């Protein structure tokens, strides 16, 4: 039997919450991505889910929605004490917002082989022009995150036929 560290179990807990938000987004016709922001005491600060279609806003990605909410709740754009959990590796826009928001840590589920801007396609946080380098951990509940996205896209292709 493999024992999981307390830190890993916390990561699973918050990624599970982000997956629940992603499912809500998918059920609403959005690409199913969810995000959760917690503080250093692992208290929930803010959540977000993709809302591009519902809001007709190209910036309404789950990460952006959560970052906006956390900044309002904390009354600060500096989120260095926060951890962002998101089901899919952030795109360049979201990676930029994460860096500019000075988030302390990013935990994501599955790599995005098309637009991933954290580790997969490009690496914005570790680029020399980045003014903030954050801690990153990918692969938490990776299979579940991948299956949700792949299933949603398959159903969209089927629906369009």
From TrEMBL:
A Pfam family of this chain: MafB19-deam
Keywords, ordered alphabetically: Hydrolase, Metal-binding, tRNA processing, Zinc
Gene Ontology terms for molecular function: tRNA-specific adenosine-34 deaminase activity
Family annotation (Gene3D superfamilies): Cytidine Deaminase, domain 2
CDD domains per UniProt: nucleoside_deaminase
Catalytic activity: adenosine(34) in tRNA + H2O + H(+) = inosine(34) in tRNA + NH4(+)
InterPro entries hit by this protein: APOBEC/CMP_deaminase_Zn-bd, CMP_dCMP_dom, Cytidine_deaminase-like, MafB19-deam, tRNA_aden_deaminase
Domain of life: Bacteria
CC cofactor note: Binds 1 zinc ion per subunit.
Cofactor dependency: Zn(2+)
Residues at the catalytic site: 63
Family designation: Belongs to the cytidine and deoxycytidylate deaminase family. ADAT2 subfamily.
NCBIfam families given in the database record: PRK10860.1
Purpose of the protein: Catalyzes the deamination of adenosine to inosine at the wobble position 34 of tRNA(Arg2).
Protein name, entry field: tRNA-specific adenosine deaminase
Organism encoding this protein: Aphanizomenon flos-aquae FACHB-1249
Organism lineage: Bacteria, Bacillati, Cyanobacteriota, Cyanophyceae, Nostocales
